[in-house]
């Protein structure tokens, strides 16, 4: 039997691999209730009509921003695992949330590049370690059905590392490359990020840090999508008390 404290949840992208896993996790949680499961083409007005207070978005980059704006307009909190976000798209959401708050509706949106607790810890450790090493690079490895590269997790990791290095006054990583820059991966705020797409993989990341005579490797592996569910459920429970935009699960964990 549901208690008065049950959080009613809608899932967008419910027929996808992650969406199906989220639906199962929500249904298995005693303090959550799955009240709507929507997929491509479904009317988002069903979210508010279902009574959901939180919607989880695991759709595709092409529609996720529009989904979030629609949820904010409905006064529904959002937990977003879809990647492909930019500084500009996040800023638009933040502005929308601020306007909504001024109009009397305080809504929270959590955008997390990765909901795996091990992945969040790896990102946090990498940011703390990056200032102590001359060289820093990231390798992300995913299944070949992933539509964006580099991954949101790797981008988030590199940005946090770059910010820590800049704050500490660390010089750019040494690199004598003169030609073939396309083989050096993406430049994310000065940290090189390499993307691998390989059948059999799920989601994996290596952070490589080097000094003269030493190397630190931080590796995180997600072998099954169920590994993301504790983070998703944490996000659902936390977002209702966090109005405005929160980026990164680390910001709702006690780190």
From TrEMBL:
<keyword id="KW-0963">Cytoplasm</keyword>
<feature type="binding site">
    <location>
        <position position="143"/>
    </location>
    <ligand>
        <name>(S)-2,3,4,5-tetrahydrodipicolinate</name>
    </ligand>
</feature>
<dbReference type="GO" id="GO:0016726">
    <property type="term" value="F:oxidoreductase activity, acting on CH or CH2 groups, NAD or NADP as acceptor"/>
</dbReference>
<dbReference type="GO" id="GO:0005829">
    <property type="term" value="C:cytosol"/>
</dbReference>
<keyword id="KW-0457">Lysine biosynthesis</keyword>
<dbReference type="InterPro" id="IPR022664">
    <property type="entry name" value="DapB_N_CS"/>
</dbReference>
<dbReference type="InterPro" id="IPR036291">
    <property type="entry name" value="NAD(P)-bd_dom_sf"/>
</dbReference>
<feature type="binding site">
    <location>
        <begin position="152"/>
        <end position="153"/>
    </location>
    <ligand>
        <name>(S)-2,3,4,5-tetrahydrodipicolinate</name>
    </ligand>
</feature>
<dbReference type="InterPro" id="IPR000846">
    <property type="entry name" value="DapB_N"/>
</dbReference>
<dbReference type="GO" id="GO:0019877">
    <property type="term" value="P:diaminopimelate biosynthetic process"/>
</dbReference>
<dbReference type="InterPro" id="IPR022663">
    <property type="entry name" value="DapB_C"/>
</dbReference>
<feature type="binding site">
    <location>
        <position position="39"/>
    </location>
    <ligand>
        <name>NAD(+)</name>
    </ligand>
</feature>
<feature type="binding site">
    <location>
        <begin position="13"/>
        <end position="18"/>
    </location>
    <ligand>
        <name>NAD(+)</name>
    </ligand>
</feature>
<comment type="similarity">
    <text>Belongs to the DapB family.</text>
</comment>
<feature type="binding site">
    <location>
        <begin position="81"/>
        <end position="83"/>
    </location>
    <ligand>
        <name>NAD(+)</name>
    </ligand>
</feature>
<keyword id="KW-0028">Amino-acid biosynthesis</keyword>
<dbReference type="GO" id="GO:0051287">
    <property type="term" value="F:NAD binding"/>
</dbReference>
<dbReference type="InterPro" id="IPR023940">
    <property type="entry name" value="DHDPR_bac"/>
</dbReference>
<feature type="active site" description="Proton donor">
    <location>
        <position position="146"/>
    </location>
</feature>
<feature type="domain" description="Dihydrodipicolinate reductase N-terminal">
    <location>
        <begin position="7"/>
        <end position="115"/>
    </location>
</feature>
<keyword id="KW-0220">Diaminopimelate biosynthesis</keyword>
<dbReference type="Pfam" id="PF01113">
    <property type="entry name" value="DapB_N"/>
</dbReference>
<feature type="domain" description="Dihydrodipicolinate reductase C-terminal">
    <location>
        <begin position="119"/>
        <end position="253"/>
    </location>
</feature>
<dbReference type="GO" id="GO:0050661">
    <property type="term" value="F:NADP binding"/>
</dbReference>
<feature type="active site" description="Proton donor/acceptor">
    <location>
        <position position="142"/>
    </location>
</feature>
<dbReference type="GO" id="GO:0008839">
    <property type="term" value="F:4-hydroxy-tetrahydrodipicolinate reductase"/>
</dbReference>
<keyword id="KW-0560">Oxidoreductase</keyword>
<comment type="pathway">
    <text>Amino-acid biosynthesis; L-lysine biosynthesis via DAP pathway; (S)-tetrahydrodipicolinate from L-aspartate: step 4/4.</text>
</comment>
<feature type="binding site">
    <location>
        <begin position="112"/>
        <end position="115"/>
    </location>
    <ligand>
        <name>NAD(+)</name>
    </ligand>
</feature>
<dbReference type="Pfam" id="PF05173">
    <property type="entry name" value="DapB_C"/>
</dbReference>
<protein>
    <recommendedName>
        <fullName>4-hydroxy-tetrahydrodipicolinate reductase</fullName>
        <ecNumber>1.17.1.8</ecNumber>
    </recommendedName>
</protein>
<keyword id="KW-0521">NADP</keyword>
<keyword id="KW-0520">NAD</keyword>
<comment type="function">
    <text>Catalyzes the conversion of 4-hydroxy-tetrahydrodipicolinate (HTPA) to tetrahydrodipicolinate.</text>
</comment>
<comment type="subunit">
    <text>Homotetramer.</text>
</comment>
<dbReference type="GO" id="GO:0009089">
    <property type="term" value="P:lysine biosynthetic process via diaminopimelate"/>
</dbReference>
């Amino acid at each position: 039997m549901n208690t008065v404290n049950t959080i009613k949840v809608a899932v967008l992208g419910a027929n996808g691999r992650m969406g199906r896993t989220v639906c199962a996790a929500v249904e298995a949680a005693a303090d959550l209730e799955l009240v709507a499961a929507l997929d491509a083409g479904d009317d988002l007005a069903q979210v508010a009509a279902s009574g959901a207070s939180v919607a989880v978005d695991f759709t595709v980059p092409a529609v996720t921003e529009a989904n979030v704006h629609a949820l904010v307009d409905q006064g529904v909190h959002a937990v977003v695992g879809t990647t492909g976000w930019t500084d500009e798209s996040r800023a638009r959401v933040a502005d929308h949330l601020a306007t909504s708050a001024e109009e009397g509706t305080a809504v929270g949106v959590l955008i997390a590049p990765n909901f795996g607790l091990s992945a969040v810890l790896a990102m946090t450790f990498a940011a703390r370690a990056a200032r102590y090493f001359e060289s820093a690079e990231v390798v992300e490895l995913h299944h070949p059905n992933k539509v964006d590269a580099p991954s949101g997790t790797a981008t988030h990791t590199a940005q946090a590392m770059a910010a820590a290095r800049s704050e500490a006054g660390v010089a750019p990583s040494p690199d004598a490359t003169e030609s073939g820059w396309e083989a050096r991966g993406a430049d994310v705020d000065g940290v090189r990020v390499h993307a691998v797409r390989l059948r059999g993989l799920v989601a994996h990341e290596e952070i490589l840090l080097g000094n003269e005579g030493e190397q630190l490797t931080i590796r995180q592996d997600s072998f099954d999508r169920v590994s993301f569910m504790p983070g998703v459920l944490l996000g659902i429970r936390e977002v209702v008390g966090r109005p405005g935009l929160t980026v990164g699960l680390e910001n709702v964990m006690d780190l």
